[in-house]
């Protein structure tokens, strides 16, 4: 409810409390020009959602792999984990994105398009945070659960897959939701390498129409709606998988 009031107040402020002459005709759904521009902007959802979902899935997989050495009794494995996590977290996402897009094809002598460069960069950047989320979730599971799994004769991988990770997932669902929101917002950076996401399309329309405030306001609303939907979905999933208290 609070978010609705804030949104309403923001719209009132933007439309009536300044001397700026708004050019909303550029996005007027009752005109041919407005319909064309709105369709052009909304088409950016396709690339934004695809690059975000794939990056999230790959980052979760890589993050889990990176997290497991942190739980090892072997010091050198824990050191490898810390080096990776601290190194990746220290690099700005935009810098990593540019390096992957321009540097990786040169080093590996491969062809890399805009889409997969964005996915790879966001996956690497997010995997370090995912590793910490998984590490915290696994460590939150009591030692009794580990002992119970071992008493049943389960090996390490069976114990993690059948006993520890399902319980840890319930613990880490809220931070996973936060990280997905983070990826959605960071996906706007892929516009700098030419991917036709929401931000790229808004930039292109600004060049054609010369009305940046109106178009970028619409862009803000697009991200706001998308992230609110994701947040509601995460809350719904939390309730579905929550363990009853009685």
UniProtKB/TrEMBL annotation:
<keyword id="KW-0813">Transport</keyword>
<keyword id="KW-0812">Transmembrane</keyword>
<protein>
    <recommendedName>
        <fullName>Glutamate/aspartate import permease protein GltK</fullName>
    </recommendedName>
</protein>
<dbReference type="GO" id="GO:0043190">
    <property type="term" value="C:ATP-binding cassette (ABC) transporter complex"/>
</dbReference>
<feature type="transmembrane region" description="Helical">
    <location>
        <begin position="51"/>
        <end position="71"/>
    </location>
</feature>
<dbReference type="InterPro" id="IPR035906">
    <property type="entry name" value="MetI-like_sf"/>
</dbReference>
<comment type="similarity">
    <text>Belongs to the binding-protein-dependent transport system permease family. HisMQ subfamily.</text>
</comment>
<keyword id="KW-0029">Amino-acid transport</keyword>
<feature type="transmembrane region" description="Helical">
    <location>
        <begin position="83"/>
        <end position="102"/>
    </location>
</feature>
<dbReference type="GO" id="GO:0022857">
    <property type="term" value="F:transmembrane transporter activity"/>
</dbReference>
<dbReference type="InterPro" id="IPR010065">
    <property type="entry name" value="AA_ABC_transptr_permease_3TM"/>
</dbReference>
<keyword id="KW-1133">Transmembrane helix</keyword>
<dbReference type="InterPro" id="IPR000515">
    <property type="entry name" value="MetI-like"/>
</dbReference>
<comment type="subunit">
    <text>The complex is composed of two ATP-binding proteins (GltL), two transmembrane proteins (GltJ and GltK) and a solute-binding protein (GltI).</text>
</comment>
<comment type="function">
    <text>Part of the ABC transporter complex GltIJKL involved in glutamate and aspartate uptake. Probably responsible for the translocation of the substrate across the membrane.</text>
</comment>
<dbReference type="GO" id="GO:0006865">
    <property type="term" value="P:amino acid transport"/>
</dbReference>
<feature type="domain" description="ABC transmembrane type-1">
    <location>
        <begin position="45"/>
        <end position="231"/>
    </location>
</feature>
<dbReference type="Pfam" id="PF00528">
    <property type="entry name" value="BPD_transp_1"/>
</dbReference>
<feature type="transmembrane region" description="Helical">
    <location>
        <begin position="210"/>
        <end position="230"/>
    </location>
</feature>
<keyword id="KW-0472">Membrane</keyword>
<keyword id="KW-1003">Cell membrane</keyword>
<dbReference type="InterPro" id="IPR043429">
    <property type="entry name" value="ArtM/GltK/GlnP/TcyL/YhdX-like"/>
</dbReference>
């Amino acid at each position: 409810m609070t978010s609705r009031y804030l949104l309403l107040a923001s719209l009132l402020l933007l439309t009536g409390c300044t001397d700026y002459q708004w050019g909303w005709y550029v996005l007027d759904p009752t005109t041919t020009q407005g319909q064309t521009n709105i369709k052009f902007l909304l088409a950016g959802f396709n690339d934004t959602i695809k690059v975000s979902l794939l990056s999230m899935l790959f980052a979760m997989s890589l993050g889990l792999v990176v997290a497991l050495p942190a739980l090892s009794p072997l010091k050198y494995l824990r050191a490898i984990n810390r080096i990776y996590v601290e190194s990746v977290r220290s690099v700005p996402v935009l810098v990593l994105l540019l390096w992957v897009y321009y540097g990786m094809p040169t080093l590996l002598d491969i062809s890399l398009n805009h889409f997969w460069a964005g996915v790879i960069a966001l996956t690497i950047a997010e995997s370090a945070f995912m590793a910490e989320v998984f590490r915290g979730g696994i460590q939150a599971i009591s030692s009794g659960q580990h002992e119970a799994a071992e008493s049943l004769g389960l090996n390490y991988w069976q114990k993690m897959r059948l006993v520890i990770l399902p319980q840890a997932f319930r613990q880490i669902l809220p931070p996973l939701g936060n990280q997905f929101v983070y990826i959605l917002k960071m996906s706007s950076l892929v516009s700098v390498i030419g991917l036709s996401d929401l931000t790229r399309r808004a930039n292109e329309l600004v060049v054609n129409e010369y009305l940046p405030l109106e178009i970028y306001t619409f862009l803000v609303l697009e991200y706001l709606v998308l992230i609110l939907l994701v947040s509601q979905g995460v809350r719904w999933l939390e309730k579905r998988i929550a363990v009853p208290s009685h």
